């Protein structure tokens, strides 16, 4: 190993050149085969992404209606559970019918998010892509959380 600046011979463990004090920068040498393999992987991933884009463009009319239904139901459940209903009328938000409505909308959202997952799996098996997959996961988790909150509130009604 030699210094890049002054050409002095360096020890293997050296971090700085003993002659000029320049920091030793170790460069990993790659063989032509490694470079070829990296370029091949890169080209393959670009080609794969192009295929995915083409596939999605070809089937862009595919819809998953359960996603929006799950979003609306979980939003209503959240608003019913969190909104300070005591400003509207005394005891409205803590009433038994309101708690039942919260859990009903939470369960409805859970149902629609499950159906959205099923439709996405069907679309994936036919065409190889899923529609708004991250949104479906997020709504599914939020629906489960709202179901737990609604169940807790419902069973704590008399306590």
Approximate strand percentage: under 5%
Unreliable spans are none
The structure class reads: mainly alpha
Helix content: 55-70%
What kind of oligomer do you see?
single chain
Order of helices and strands: HHHH
N- and C-termini, Cα separation: 77 Å
Radius of gyration: 30 Å
**Overall pLDDT score:** 84
Q: Please outline the major beta sheet.
A: none
Count of runs of 4 or more consecutive helical residues: 4
* Inertia-based shape: elongated
Q: How many domains make up the 3D coordinates?
A: 3
Number of strands: 0
In brief:
The protein is mainly α and about 160 residues long. The chain has helices spanning about 30-60, 65-80, 95-125, 135-155. The longest helix has about 30 residues, at about 95-125.
Describe what this molecule looks like in 3D.
With 159 residues, this protein is mainly alpha-helical. The chain has helices spanning 32-58, 65-82, 96-127, 133-155. The chain folds into three domains: 1-30; 33-61; 63-155. It has four helices and no strands. The model has no long low-confidence stretch (mean pLDDT 84).
Secondary-structure blueprint of this entry?
Blueprint (H helix, E strand, L loop, with lengths): L31 H27 L6 H18 L13 H32 L5 H23 L4
Helix pairs in contact: 2-3, 2-4, 3-4
Search tags:
159 residues; mainly alpha; 3 domains; elongated
């Amino acid at each position: 190993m030699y210094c890049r600046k002054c050409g002095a011979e360096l020890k293997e463990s050296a971090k700085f050149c003993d002659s000029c004090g320049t920091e030793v920068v170790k460069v990993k040498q790659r063989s032509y085969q490694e470079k070829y393999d990296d370029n091949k992987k890169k080209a393959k991933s670009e080609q794969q992404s192009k295929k995915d884009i083409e596939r999605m463009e070809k089937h862009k009319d595919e819809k998953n209606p359960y996603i929006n239904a799950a979003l609306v139901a979980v939003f209503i459940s959240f608003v019913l559970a969190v909104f300070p209903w005591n400003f509207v009328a005394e005891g409205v938000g803590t009433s038994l019918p309101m708690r039942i409505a919260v859990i009903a909308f939470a369960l409805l959202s859970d149902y629609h998010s499950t159906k959205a997952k099923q439709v996405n799996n069907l679309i994936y098996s036919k065409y190889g892509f899923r529609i708004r997959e991250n949104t479906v996961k997020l709504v599914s988790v939020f629906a489960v959380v709202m179901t737990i909150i609604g169940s807790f509130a419902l069973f704590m009604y008399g306590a």
